[in-house]
Amino acid sequence: MSQEELLLDSGQPNEDNRDRKGRSRIGLVVTGVVGGSLVALYAVAAPFVAPALRKVCLPFVPATTTQVENVLKALRARSGTLVDIGSGDGRIVIAAAKHGFRASGFELNPWLVWYSRYRAWREGVYRSTSFHISDLWKVSFAQYSNVVIFGVPQMMEKLELKLASELPSTAKVVACRFPFPTWIPESTAGEGIDTVWVYDAKTFKSHLPRRKLNSQHTSWQLFWQLL
Ligand SMILES: C[S@@+](CC[C@H](N)C(=O)[O-])C[C@H]1O[C@@H](n2cnc3c(N)ncnc32)[C@H](O)[C@@H]1O
Fold first, then answer.
1. What angle do the packed helices 91-98 and 65-74 form, to 10 degrees?
2. What order do you get walking across the sheet with 129-133 strand by strand?
């Protein structure tokens, strides 16, 4: 009997094969778990990191409790529709809905939108809230009579133009932490990082025609210069 036949007879190669198969199966499972975890981590983290890679970086920084209270204080005499632009985890929308507003949030990060919907459902205001996965620059806020924004200074000038051209003159806008650069607030609430500024659309919209007029005037001047 050859040495190989002897080994086969003793059953050793079969055990080795089983060991090898077992080890490669464990290897596959470990690779799958590690790979799956990395993909899941990327899927969750990417929407939070993405704002930092945009031209204007508007990261998720939730409003403080005092800030939310100041927003509600600023809008205490108001009712109707409200929108939080860049609604984060939905805390302002949910708090506003609890105070009787029909409140909506527009947010780029889908995880935050799903979490906001879940929170609204848990806190019993699912019917008076709505959350949209949208880019704030690609939607119109024309239907809202109360607007809340916790933005960054780099975006406020562009947002002034957008809101001034879209909102009805009955609207109020509340800016959290950073004021609008050229609008004049009718009031403020709170202090420090919790300050909020309240703007009346009638006032800031009255400046819009002049701006448009100025640009028309410039175009006409150019036209005459070209003749
Ligand atoms: C400073 S946080 C404010 C969150 C919330 N409004 C609050 O006060 O708790 C700004 C939010 O805007 C979102 N955001 C950034 N860029 C956006 C865009 N282009 N369109 C919509 N939301 C955006 C961010 O994901 C973030 O959740």
1. 50
2. 129-133, 102-107, 81-85, 146-149, 172-176, 196-200, 187-189
Q: Which residue has the higher pLDDT, 214 or 198?
A: 198
Residue 13 pLDDT level (bands cut at 50, 70, 90): low
Please give the structure tokens belonging to residue 202: 């009638």
* Ligand 1 lining (C-beta closer than 6 Å): 51, 58, 60-63, 84, 86-88, 91-92, 106-109, 112, 135-137, 150
Distance 50 CA to ligand 1 centre (A): 12
Residue 55 predicted with pLDDT over 80: no
Residue 123 Cα to ligand 1 midpoint, Å, equals: 21
Top-confidence range, 41-45, 151-155, 223-227: 151-155
Is pTM beyond 0.85? Reply is no
Pick from 174, 127, 142, 182: which is nearest to 158 by CA?
Answer: 182
CATH homologous superfamily, domain 65-210: Vaccinia Virus protein VP39 (3.40.50.150)
